[in-house]
Amino acid sequence: MRIGLYGMPSAGKSFILEKIDFIRVISGSRMLRELCPDFDKKDEENKKIARQQLADHLMAEDSFIMDGHYAFGDRIAFTESDGRLYDAFVYLYISPEVLRERMEGSEKNQKYLAYDIAEWQNREIEALRAFCHANDKDFYVVDNPPQNSFDDVSDVVYFLKDVICGFSCVSMAERCAGDILSKSRSRKITLMDGDRTVTIEDTSNAVFGYTTQLYDGNFYTGYQSWKQAKEFESYSFEKLTRIPVSLNENVCEKINEDTYILTSGHERVWDFISRELGVPCYFGIEMSAETKFFITKKLQRAGKRVLAYGDSMNDYYMLKQADRGFLVQRQDESFSRSLKGKDLRGLVIV
Known about the structure:
This protein is of the alpha/beta class and 350 residues long. The chain contains 15 helices and 13 strands. The two termini are 42 Å apart.
């Protein structure tokens, strides 16, 4: 497993790497200068060549984690060799305000204060996410709302260890897609999100009053689903005897023999609902926006036409990838706040 730990200057990647003792840790900048001692004197084109040589050199290594940069201001440092090198990309998100404060106190990084920090960081995240989507690689954003930074990186370290031990949204998507293909009887498959799509209300909140700030950063990657699964462990409830929320009739009337629910909701709740509806359901610690996207993509590769229903950022990439994506409105005809600023063109409003 080769992991790239990416993030902005002053984000704290080195601090995290110092806490890791279960996989080889490589300092990218240090190794780069070991392989190319005059790196800092080279022009941008030759620096790019040196970065490619470093990545090619590390292709012989089977297992390590290394820090990296996608860009320096408006100069992209990421190379095709970097893309081939890593099995998974983990991006360390720190709020722009905190990054700016850290850069102001760093003589090395003060030069980056001339850039729009928020726009730069968002551009990096979207570019890496798009690359991973196109190349079937795992992509995770680690963040810590509402603190906007990390006083304690224990969860990040535990998460990285789980990734090394097999946690993978791409792998889960392969398993789910394979199972769906074994069950499907037609060329057309319908995928449905659970909470606020099949149901009107959020089931976890309805059953045990669960609310979370994990998704406040609006990333919805496997790191957030991993964190949510940890939070779910502390909640318990009696055996369900009826569906605890209202069903969305506009969506449920579209259920057919080749409909499948993909949800990040509580597995016991959704196992019960899926049985009541007679619809197979896929859930679990790795069910994220990426997982739903890759399930859709893999079904299409197998020759299936995919219709997808969802309501939020957790469904966005699935909806955009599907042959036809249906965006579910709230009861007041508004959309999920998580979709603010997203390109909704091409989606059918339900």
